[in-house]
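--- STAGE predict ---
source: upstream dedup step, 1 unique chain passed
mode: sequence only
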Amino acid sequence: MPELNTSSLPDLIFSVLFFFMMVTSMREVTLKVVINQPAGTEIEKLVKKSRVTHIYIGTPTKDYRSQLGPGTRIQLDDDFAEVGAVQDFVIGERKNMAERDQPYMQVSMKIDNDTHMNIVTDVKQELRKAWALNIVYSSKKTNRVE
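--- STAGE serialize ---
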């Protein structure tokens, strides 16, 4: 019985590995806040994610709670921020987008279920100042209305 020629097997494995490395997207942001999203029944999936900028609002995770305390915090990219930094963040994100996507920019707010509305209102006011008027609230899907 003839032997199986395995000399090209390493090339094949590295080609497949390279392919998966190219098509796999890594998580861009490490969440530093705990977000228990509210549930909703009329949920739509975001179509073009390249147009979406995310703002996270919630309590810090265990790693950061000792430094920052248990209060609600805003996370922009990988850093905590104050409400006043939201406008500059959104303007910078808009400049980094492709020019054809800039008029269609969406701001997705991922907010913890126990967050008070005063901080959400303050963030929305900053978004208005930055002319980011297309705001999307993220939630998890549920089949029933409570």
